[in-house]
Amino acid sequence: MTSSIWIDAAIEQVWQAITEEEPLSKWYAPGSTWAIPRLAAGEKMIFTLMPSEHNQLTEPLPMELTIERVSKHQEFAFYLEVPETVIAISIAEEPQGGTMVRFNMAGYDVSLAYLKALLEGATS
User: Fold this and answer.
1) Which helix (H) or strand (E) holds 24?
2) Per-residue pLDDT tens for 21-80?
3) pTM of the entire structure?
4) Could you give the CA distance from residue 105 to residue 59 in angstroms, rounded to a whole number?
């Protein structure tokens, strides 16, 4: 099972939104922060999940992630040790225009809707 969405944006814009700290913090668990010192396989990054109506947290929860794969304009995948999970985001230019974005698992529809709104210029 996967989550996917078509976005009316160039693949370069989508790539930036899924791999750069500032846009990630706006659509992937909005308000949570990312620290990505170096975008390369094997590198560590920190995702800090902030308390929200979507989780049961009472304080920020930092998680160390390891970047598994970085294929520019194709895939960004990272590994979370507990629970053991690989999260892969793949993107592809569509023949009719725009970009298709897919997560390798279900449960990301809300995040994808935020990403679409961010890239298509909707106000948040």
Assistant:
1) helix 21-27
2) 999 999 999 999 999 999 999 999 999 999 988 889 999 999 999 999 999 999 999 999
3) 0.92
4) 26
Spatial distance between the Cα atoms of 78 and 103, rounded to a whole number of angstroms: 12
Measured on CA atoms in the order 28, 33, 38, 42, is the torsion positive or negative? negative
In the predicted structure, residue 124 carries a pLDDT above the cut 70: no
Cα separation, 112 vs 53, whole angstroms? 17
Cα gap 94→106, rounded to integer Å: 21
> Which residue in the block uniquely carries the two structure tokens 């960004």?
76
Strand arrangement of the beta sheet that strand 44-49 belongs to: 3-7, 99-103, 85-93, 75-80, 61-71, 44-49, 33-35
d(CA 115, CA 100) in angstroms, rounded, equals: 12
Three-state secondary-structure class, residue 83 = coil
3-state class of 64 per DSSP?
strand
